[in-house]
Amino acid sequence: MSTGTTHADLERILEGIGPRLRRLRRDRGLTLEALAARTGISVSTLSRLEAGKRSPSLDLLIPLARAHRIALDHLVAAPASGDPRVHLQPLHLNRGSVLVPLTQYPGRVQVFKQVLAPRRPELVTHEGYEWLYVLAGRLLLVLGERNFTLLPGEVAEFDTTEPHWFGPPDTNSVEILHLYGPRGVQAVVRAGPTAP
Fold first, then answer.
1. pLDDT tens digits for range 4-27
2. Strands (E) located in 67-145
3. Please, what's the largest Cα pairwise distance for the chain?
Protein backbone atom coordinates (compact mmCIF):
# COMPACT_ATOMS: atom_id res chain seq x y z
CA MET A 1 0.00 0.00 0.00
CA SER A 2 1.28 3.48 -0.81
CA THR A 3 0.40 4.88 2.63
CA GLY A 4 2.75 2.46 4.39
CA THR A 5 -0.17 0.88 6.26
CA THR A 6 -0.31 -2.88 5.78
CA HIS A 7 -3.41 -5.06 5.96
CA ALA A 8 -2.15 -6.36 9.33
CA ASP A 9 -1.77 -2.76 10.61
CA LEU A 10 -5.34 -1.99 9.55
CA GLU A 11 -6.66 -5.14 11.26
CA ARG A 12 -4.81 -4.21 14.47
CA ILE A 13 -6.32 -0.70 14.42
CA LEU A 14 -9.83 -2.07 13.84
CA GLU A 15 -9.46 -4.70 16.60
CA GLY A 16 -8.41 -2.01 19.09
CA ILE A 17 -11.51 0.14 18.57
CA GLY A 18 -13.95 -2.01 20.58
CA PRO A 19 -11.85 -2.17 23.77
CA ARG A 20 -11.05 1.55 23.42
CA LEU A 21 -14.77 2.37 23.17
CA ARG A 22 -15.51 0.29 26.27
CA ARG A 23 -12.70 2.03 28.22
CA LEU A 24 -13.90 5.49 27.15
CA ARG A 25 -17.48 4.73 28.19
CA ARG A 26 -16.44 3.30 31.56
CA ASP A 27 -13.96 6.14 32.23
CA ARG A 28 -16.86 8.56 31.81
CA GLY A 29 -19.13 6.51 34.07
CA LEU A 30 -21.66 5.83 31.31
CA THR A 31 -23.86 2.77 30.96
CA LEU A 32 -24.60 1.32 27.54
CA GLU A 33 -28.16 2.64 27.96
CA ALA A 34 -26.95 6.20 28.68
CA LEU A 35 -24.59 6.15 25.69
CA ALA A 36 -27.38 4.76 23.48
CA ALA A 37 -29.60 7.67 24.54
CA ARG A 38 -26.85 10.17 23.64
CA THR A 39 -25.97 8.67 20.27
CA GLY A 40 -29.17 7.09 18.98
CA ILE A 41 -27.27 3.81 18.53
CA SER A 42 -29.00 0.77 20.02
CA VAL A 43 -27.64 -0.87 23.17
CA SER A 44 -27.16 -4.18 21.33
CA THR A 45 -25.13 -2.49 18.57
CA LEU A 46 -22.96 -0.67 21.12
CA SER A 47 -22.40 -3.91 23.03
CA ARG A 48 -21.45 -5.81 19.87
CA LEU A 49 -19.15 -2.96 18.77
CA GLU A 50 -17.33 -2.95 22.14
CA ALA A 51 -17.00 -6.76 22.03
CA GLY A 52 -15.52 -6.64 18.52
CA LYS A 53 -18.50 -8.52 17.05
CA ARG A 54 -19.61 -5.54 14.94
CA SER A 55 -17.41 -3.81 12.38
CA PRO A 56 -16.80 -0.14 13.28
CA SER A 57 -18.19 2.04 10.48
CA LEU A 58 -18.23 5.82 10.16
CA ASP A 59 -21.98 6.01 10.78
CA LEU A 60 -21.30 4.47 14.23
CA LEU A 61 -17.94 6.10 15.04
CA ILE A 62 -18.91 9.70 14.25
CA PRO A 63 -21.81 9.85 16.78
CA LEU A 64 -19.60 8.10 19.37
CA ALA A 65 -16.74 10.58 18.83
CA ARG A 66 -19.23 13.44 19.24
CA ALA A 67 -20.77 11.91 22.37
CA HIS A 68 -17.32 11.49 23.94
CA ARG A 69 -16.25 14.88 22.55
CA ILE A 70 -13.00 13.57 21.09
CA ALA A 71 -11.52 13.67 17.61
CA LEU A 72 -12.30 10.69 15.40
CA ASP A 73 -8.59 9.89 14.95
CA HIS A 74 -8.24 9.60 18.76
CA LEU A 75 -11.17 7.21 18.85
CA VAL A 76 -9.61 4.88 16.30
CA ALA A 77 -6.01 5.53 17.45
CA ALA A 78 -4.95 6.36 13.94
CA PRO A 79 -1.19 6.09 13.43
CA ALA A 80 0.72 9.33 13.77
CA SER A 81 1.35 11.18 10.54
CA GLY A 82 4.85 12.19 11.62
CA ASP A 83 3.75 15.75 12.43
CA PRO A 84 3.78 16.18 16.24
CA ARG A 85 2.07 19.57 16.15
CA VAL A 86 -1.44 19.89 17.50
CA HIS A 87 -3.64 21.91 15.18
CA LEU A 88 -5.69 24.08 17.50
CA GLN A 89 -9.15 25.28 16.53
CA PRO A 90 -9.86 28.67 18.17
CA LEU A 91 -13.53 29.37 18.84
CA HIS A 92 -14.54 33.00 18.43
CA LEU A 93 -17.22 33.66 21.01
CA ASN A 94 -19.60 36.57 21.25
CA ARG A 95 -18.42 40.01 22.33
CA GLY A 96 -14.84 39.45 21.10
CA SER A 97 -13.77 36.58 23.40
CA VAL A 98 -11.70 33.69 22.03
CA LEU A 99 -11.50 30.13 23.42
CA VAL A 100 -8.74 27.71 22.37
CA PRO A 101 -9.20 24.12 23.64
CA LEU A 102 -5.76 22.66 24.44
CA THR A 103 -6.97 19.17 25.42
CA GLN A 104 -9.44 16.77 23.84
CA TYR A 105 -10.31 14.31 26.60
CA PRO A 106 -13.62 15.02 28.33
CA GLY A 107 -14.03 13.37 31.69
CA ARG A 108 -10.51 14.49 32.64
CA VAL A 109 -9.06 17.93 33.31
CA GLN A 110 -9.82 20.21 30.35
CA VAL A 111 -7.36 23.00 29.50
CA PHE A 112 -8.24 26.14 27.56
CA LYS A 113 -6.41 29.30 26.61
CA GLN A 114 -8.89 32.16 26.68
CA VAL A 115 -8.94 35.81 25.75
CA LEU A 116 -11.84 37.37 27.62
CA ALA A 117 -13.29 40.64 26.36
CA PRO A 118 -15.15 42.96 28.75
CA ARG A 119 -18.58 41.65 29.71
CA ARG A 120 -21.19 42.04 32.40
CA PRO A 121 -20.67 39.87 35.52
CA GLU A 122 -23.24 37.07 35.90
CA LEU A 123 -22.67 34.57 38.69
CA VAL A 124 -23.08 30.89 37.78
CA THR A 125 -22.77 27.53 39.56
CA HIS A 126 -22.11 24.03 38.21
CA GLU A 127 -20.39 20.80 39.21
CA GLY A 128 -16.61 20.71 38.98
CA TYR A 129 -13.42 22.49 39.96
CA GLU A 130 -11.62 25.31 38.12
CA TRP A 131 -8.13 26.78 38.02
CA LEU A 132 -7.30 30.13 36.44
CA TYR A 133 -3.78 31.34 35.54
CA VAL A 134 -3.40 34.90 34.28
CA LEU A 135 -1.09 35.24 31.26
CA ALA A 136 -1.65 38.93 30.44
CA GLY A 137 -3.87 41.70 31.73
CA ARG A 138 -5.93 41.75 34.92
CA LEU A 139 -8.63 39.23 35.88
CA LEU A 140 -11.52 39.91 38.23
CA LEU A 141 -12.70 36.75 40.00
CA VAL A 142 -16.00 36.97 41.86
CA LEU A 143 -16.69 34.16 44.34
CA GLY A 144 -20.00 34.67 46.08
CA GLU A 145 -19.67 37.99 47.93
CA ARG A 146 -15.87 38.18 47.54
CA ASN A 147 -13.92 39.87 44.71
CA PHE A 148 -10.29 39.12 43.81
CA THR A 149 -8.10 40.83 41.19
CA LEU A 150 -5.42 38.58 39.74
CA LEU A 151 -2.34 39.82 37.89
CA PRO A 152 -0.09 38.00 35.38
CA GLY A 153 1.47 34.92 36.95
CA GLU A 154 -1.19 34.56 39.64
CA VAL A 155 -3.33 31.46 40.06
CA ALA A 156 -6.73 30.89 41.64
CA GLU A 157 -8.66 27.67 42.17
CA PHE A 158 -12.19 27.10 43.40
CA ASP A 159 -15.10 24.71 43.63
CA THR A 160 -17.60 25.67 40.92
CA THR A 161 -20.61 24.87 43.09
CA GLU A 162 -19.88 28.27 44.69
CA PRO A 163 -21.46 31.13 42.69
CA HIS A 164 -18.67 32.58 40.54
CA TRP A 165 -17.75 34.76 37.58
CA PHE A 166 -14.45 35.85 36.05
CA GLY A 167 -13.46 38.38 33.40
CA PRO A 168 -11.72 41.69 32.89
CA PRO A 169 -12.27 44.25 35.67
CA ASP A 170 -12.24 47.13 33.16
CA THR A 171 -12.47 47.80 29.41
CA ASN A 172 -9.29 45.81 28.56
CA SER A 173 -9.20 42.13 27.60
CA VAL A 174 -7.46 39.54 29.77
CA GLU A 175 -5.63 36.39 28.61
CA ILE A 176 -5.76 33.30 30.82
CA LEU A 177 -5.13 29.56 31.00
CA HIS A 178 -8.34 27.98 32.26
CA LEU A 179 -8.38 24.44 33.63
CA TYR A 180 -11.65 22.72 34.38
CA GLY A 181 -11.80 19.38 36.16
CA PRO A 182 -14.46 16.95 37.27
CA ARG A 183 -15.74 17.30 40.81
CA GLY A 184 -13.17 16.10 43.34
CA VAL A 185 -10.12 16.71 41.14
CA GLN A 186 -7.96 19.49 42.57
CA ALA A 187 -4.64 21.07 41.64
CA VAL A 188 -1.67 21.16 43.99
CA VAL A 189 -0.89 24.86 43.50
CA ARG A 190 -2.75 27.50 45.50
CA ALA A 191 -2.91 31.24 44.98
CA GLY A 192 -1.25 33.26 47.71
CA PRO A 193 -2.05 36.78 48.79
CA THR A 194 -1.00 39.51 46.38
CA ALA A 195 2.11 41.38 47.55
CA PRO A 196 1.35 45.00 48.53
1. 557 777 777 778 888 888 888 887
2. 91-92, 98-101, 110-116, 129-136, 139-143
3. 66
